Amino acid sequence: MRLVITADTHVPKRARDLPPALWTAVEAADVVVHAGDWVDEALLAAMTARSRRLIGVYGNNDGPPLRARLPEVARVELAGLRLAVVHETGPRQRREERCAARFPDTDLLVFGHSHIPWDTVAPGGLRLLNPGSPTDRRAQPHATYLTAEISAGRLTGVRLHRLPPR
């Protein structure tokens, strides 16, 4: 199962649309995970139409229309892997311990908010991934998103994709 993981797209405030490379990845993926800060319902509609399966949550920049359509936390099982998605996890200090306590029956936690790519493992084995942002790199050297694969309950092939400058 092929995943595309993104967050903090901020369309149309930070970009008119997603980068073409990300749209290509979305269309090729089995599952697309979006960890919030869509900003506009039009992107949710476009991503829903262009993906086979979409799992998403709302973020702090998403208003009432998106909050009415998306959960704060999403939990699913994909090919035996227990996945949770949330926008915010709090400060980076002690993030792994805090998230392991909040998501005890989870194998993979995808989060956003910081626009900073993150890939760590908490005590007990919870993997934490943040794809950064494909449209608003802030102080990061590149705009980014992630791809990964799931097979027999295991996450493999996690890859951070750097997008060309706009």
From TrEMBL:
It comes from Plantactinospora siamensis. Coiled coil: none annotated. Keywords: Metal-binding. This is Phosphoesterase. It holds the Pfam family Metallophos_2. NCBIfam families: yfcE. InterPro entries: Calcineurin-like_PHP_lpxH, Metallo-depent_PP-like, Phosphodiesterase_MJ0936/Vps29. Belongs to the metallophosphoesterase superfamily. YfcE family. Its EC number is 3.1.4.-. Its cofactor is a divalent metal cation. Residues 1-152 form the Calcineurin-like phosphoesterase domain.
